[in-house]
Amino acid sequence: MRRALLAITGLAASTTALVVFKGSPGTSQVAQNLPTAQPVNPSGPGAEPGAPGTDPAAGTPTPSGSAKPSTSPKPGKTTARPSGTRTTKAPSAPRTTTKAPQSTNRRVTGDGFENEYGYVQVQIVVSGSRIVEAVALSLPSGGESDIHSGDVRLAYDGTGAPGTPSEVVRKQNANLNTVSGATETSNSYKQSLRSAIEQAF
Question: Residue 100 to residues 107, 114, 127, 129: CA-CA distances in angstroms?
C-alpha cells in the first residue's frame, strides 16, 4: 500500500515536473521571439529615430535648424549702389562784389583876397573835370556890405531859387558877370575862384 502510494506520488511529481519543464522553454521562446517595443519612425526605414526633422514624442516632422525662412529686404530700400557713378556739384557762378562807387568829388579852396570892404575867399567842388558847386567861404559883412555880399552869393553860389544852377556851374570858369552895386566884392570873388580852378585843373 505504501509502495503504491509512493509510486503514485512519484508519478504525479514527475508529470508536474515534465509539464513545468516543457512549458518554461516555450514561454521563454515566445518571449524571446517577440520584437522589443521601438518608437515608430515616420521618416521611413533607414532614418534614425532621433535625427533632425522628426519629433520623437509627437512623430511629426519639425523644421530643421538649417532650413530657416528666407528674409527678403524691406520694400523701398535699395542697398545696391550703381558702380562707376559719381555725383559732382555744378560749378557755382563767380561771385560779383559790387562796391558802392566812391565819391570822386574834390573840394578845392582858392586864395583869399582883401578889398576895402572886407575879405573874400571861394571854394569849389569838382567832380571829374566839372565844377559842380561853388561856395563863398568868406564875404564882407556889416552895413551895406551884407546886402551886396548877399547879392554876390545869390548870383555866383546859386543859393537862390532851388534847382537853379549858379553862374559858376553854368559857365565852368571865372568869367562871371559883375553884380551891380558890388563891383569890388565881385572882382575879389572872381580872383579867388580863378585861383581854385587853377589848383583843381
Answer: 20, 42, 16, 21
Count the neighbouring beta carbons within 10 Å of the beta carbon of residue 158. Answer: 20
How far apart CA 114 and CA 191 sit, in angstroms, is 11
Cα–Cα distance measured from residue 189 to residue 140, given in angstroms and rounded to the nearest whole number: 11
Half-sphere exposure for 39 (CA within 13 Å, toward CB): 15
Q: For residue 91, is pLDDT > 50?
A: yes
105-109/118-127 β-pairing:
antiparallel
Query: pTM for the full model?
Result: 0.49
> What number of residues does the chain have?
201
Name the nearest CA neighbour of 124 among 162, 147, 156: 156
CA dihedral 136, 137, 143, 148 (to 10 degrees): -10
